[in-house]
Known about the structure:
Blueprint: E1 8-12, H1 16-28, E2 32-36, H2 39-45, E3 52-57, H3 65-75, E4 81-85, H4 90-98, E5 103-106, H5 111-142, H6 147-157, H7 162-169, H8 173-186, H9 192-207
Parallel strand pairs: 1-2, 1-3, 3-4, 4-5
Amino acid sequence: MSAQTDCIVAIIDDDDALRDALAVLVTAAGWRAVGYASAEDFLASLTGEQAGCALIDIKLPGMDGMELLHRLAELAPGFPAVILTGHGDVPMAVEALKAGAVDFIEKPFDPDRLLSSLRQALSRDAVLRETKLAIEEFHSLIVKLTPREREVMDFMVLGQSNKMIAATLGISPRTVEVYRARVMDKMQVRSLAELVRLTLRARDREAG
């Protein structure tokens, strides 16, 4: 993934000097860095809309980094985080990764490894946002269909012919053709194959 200045790396660390140093590293990589001295400050700014990831120190005043990781999973599911710690152990690392952390990095850290983990986190965020956008776009189109058009579309996606759909719904094949044309127009597709791909992609992403 290439550097994107619209991606924000939220740095949550109460060590001012380290937070500033991390911000310099993140900025040099081409991302925007925003620092927070506590978990509470970060959560107060969280909207769930910003693109990016969080770099969280385990030892924080008040709410610690592990608790923040769990809170983040509740408030902004899927928002990726990298954990940074000066006193980690295996059980803590396992807990962090189970809670959804992209990586668990011990201090003193290798800058290249840290940047690699942040790239992975930002890439994961981009995929999640693309998936969310695709689902939203699909539903913005499908709500335009009437109940009958939705029924016809479901049968179309299953590969049923006009004659089969007509027999099932108790209407004429000609009427089915009219509904099919409306479905194609409202779903903004030019072929049945495109409609099938659009529908299955949205359903797979919702299930995943």
